Amino acid sequence: MTAREIARLATSIENGAPLPAGLAEGEGLIIGITGPPGAGKSSLVDALAAEWRRRGKTVAIIAVDPSSRSTGGAILGDRIRMQRHHGDPGVFIRSMANRGAGGGVARTTHTLAQLFRSAGFDFIIIETIGVGQDEIAVAAVADVTVVVLTPGMGDDVQAIKAGVMEIADLFVINKADLPGVEKARREIEAMLSLGQRAVPIFQTIATEGAGASELADAIASRERRRDRDAPSSFEIDHLGIAVESIDSALRFYVDQLGMSISARETVEHERVHVAMLPAGESRIELLQPSDPDSTIANFLAKRGPGLHHVALRVPDVNAAIANLQASGARILGEPKRGAGGHIYVFVHPASTGGVLWELIQK
Questions:
Q1: Which of these three, 192, 208, 228, is where a domain ends?
Q2: Most C-beta atoms within 10 A of its C-beta, which of 9, 37, 103, 208?
Q3: Which of 82, 72, 77 is nearest to 106 (CA)?
Q4: Residue 232 pLDDT grade (very low, low, confident, very high; cuts 50, 70, 90)
């Protein structure tokens, strides 16, 4: 795939087009570089790209910038710092506007990263906008997430520790020639101790390339999170339909449609009666409240009978929860055991475009 073809497809993707069918999957590692403004993320990306080029590897860089208020496009501040790679066919730099999306990336960043992976790049680096506490969506896209800090950012560490600090696979203290490096390291280690996490911490002077080789080694040793790129591993499990009476509803589904009932049961902790009707590899679940104060009863009182939720089978429900929470999605409670014995958790409609989603352990 030529640079011109990649650029044309990238533009289409940014404008909402899907990844073209038939592209090779690719084996490239996706790296997220994030952290507060002024940490030197662009300089670090530049240093890593230079290091991997010395090793004969190819690099694609997605630099996410704020949208210009006048044109709507990317401001291109990040690309200016990477001028030495201009004209190198082994480096492809794409600045993209976030187009108002939160989380430090754009809505199409993941698809764009998959395009570069399909094009055969060895490393795909996503540099986020200078992020705050809740801008952690890159963790759901990247195989490896690198959080960049600098000496003297004690207050910033405290401010963002509940968000960005929790998604790091690697920490980098950049501008390590400034005073306060050891204090910054202690602050990171203290924060990690609260969550009982062990995350490697590196020191770099990105503008000089110092520390880039060690960091590149650590990043390259990580493996791809292949489950994030396998849409075939996600399947519709069932549609949950709230009804006033299962027996009345069955007159349509069984008597008129000719469907069969595979099981009926009561889920006590959800206070609901359930009838399951197979439909190919999926099923329909009719949900009748067993208690006037149950969730289904409240749903019926507010909206009447109808679609209550869509259930999706996932390979690892806990990993799915972690990815969704990292990108800011709202999870309702902890995983539970439901009808048929499956493990499930719900995702709030505010995070899904208005539909209650149920994630079920495959």
A1: 228
A2: 103
A3: 72
A4: very low
